[in-house]
Amino acid sequence: MKQFFGIILCILFCSVLKAQTYTLNHYLEISKNSSPLLRDLKNQVAMSQLDSLRLRAGLKVQVSANSGGLFAPVINGYGYSGAITNFQTLNALLTANKTIIGKRYLNSQLAAIGLQRDSILNTSKISELDLKRAITVQYITAYGSLQQLKFSQEVVDLLTKEEDVLKKLTRANVYRQSDYLTFLVTLKQQELQLSQSRLLYKNDYSTLNYLSGIADTSMVELTEPDLQRTFTPDATNSIFFKKYQLDSLRFVNGRKLIDFSYRPKANIFADGGFNTDFIGPVYRNFGTSFGFNISVPIYDGGQRKLQYKRLSLEEETRESYKAFFNVQYRQQIAQLNQQINENEKLTKQINDQIKYTESLIKVDTQLLQTGDLKITELILAVNNYLTVKNLFTQTTISRLQLINQLNYWNR
């Protein structure tokens, strides 16, 4: 009766799995849309575009309205000097101001903002790759647990079928009671393994939902991830080297901005309105004024050279990091390709071994029905089959994980 209910539960569980299937792309798309980090970086890119527009807007004529009044009474000869305060004043002015800036200086400032935007874009791409790699790693792990669950179910079904045959043969005194009990112990062990595999898949699948930002406790079947090895691009086109390129351009543009900051600066202004001290006819105090100011740097104590030196040190640091990363990058690619090739060779050997073990089990099950097989030989064949199938699952998952790592760096 217990076996009957166990089989019913397994059938129900498998039917739930088969009711709906999800692919790797499903989880990648959901995780991408729900990631607050990617949304934050996207907003930062939008803000850098606004900074560019704000810079251009700040160079246009700036108009402001200003008004002020002052009353400084003199009582019995005590009070502020009228020559200074004019006793009382009132003004209401409309002021226009414009900073004069060269086109090359403006382009350098815009280039600084553009480089910052490109840096954020590159960071966003790398963050998206990191997220994709993490989700794929967990998806492959959950898929491996699912394959282990299916295999455990297959073995239990096989042993359950043979257990019915062995029970009849034991009652017919073809096999001893001890043989039947030995076989039954093996069956119970595999049923425990099946329960453990089911629990492992539930945990791995729940972790996948957690990382993807999915609030769902239902169970679905995962399809095999379609991962193919990609070719390594030229280093200059890799997003991992893009950071060093952008830093180099930023340092070059930084020197230009330093040079421009030491050039003369000019500003023009004009105002118009009402400004009076209430001495004489007030209606005659409407007027206007305009002017300009120029600032010419002469000596700054050597700060310009110090800023150049700072940029040179930053460039030296950039070159050092780039050279070190280049060695690591190429070593990582070569190692992953080597591991994948060795993994594929091992997979072929395992497939051959699976064929032998499956053929042996078929022969043993036929001999079991005639009573010409020792139970220990059948158990040994099943254990060998378990070992080689587990090795096949582990090798397959390892290959997928290696391809995932390789594809991550081949961007």
List its salient traits.
alpha+beta; Outer membrane efflux proteins (OEP); disordered N terminus; four-stranded antiparallel sheet; 9 helices; 411 residues
Structure commentary:
Helix 2 packs parallel to helix 6, helix 5 runs antiparallel to helix 6 and helix 8 runs antiparallel to helix 9. The chain is built from 9 helices and 6 strands. 70% of the residues lie in helices and 12% in strands. The strands form 2 sheets. It has a 4-stranded antiparallel β-sheet with strand order 2-3-5-6, with no helix packed on it. It has one domain: Outer membrane efflux proteins (OEP), CATH 1.20.1600.10. The two termini are 57 Å apart. It is α+β, with helices and mostly antiparallel strands.
> Strand-and-helix sequence, N→C?
HEHHEHEHHEHEEHH
Q: How many extended strands?
A: 6
What fold name stands as the CATH topology? Outer membrane efflux proteins (OEP)
Structural class: alpha+beta
Shape type: elongated
Q: Compute the CA-based radius of gyration.
A: 39 Å
- The number of distinct structural domains comes to 1
The percent range for helix content is: 55-70%
Stretches where pLDDT falls below 50 for ≥5 residues?
Answer: 1-9, 11-18
Query: Distance between the terminal alpha carbons, to the nearest Å?
Result: 57 Å
The description of the largest β-sheet is: 4 strands, antiparallel
Mean pLDDT: 88
Percentage beta strand: 5-15%
Tally of helical runs: 9
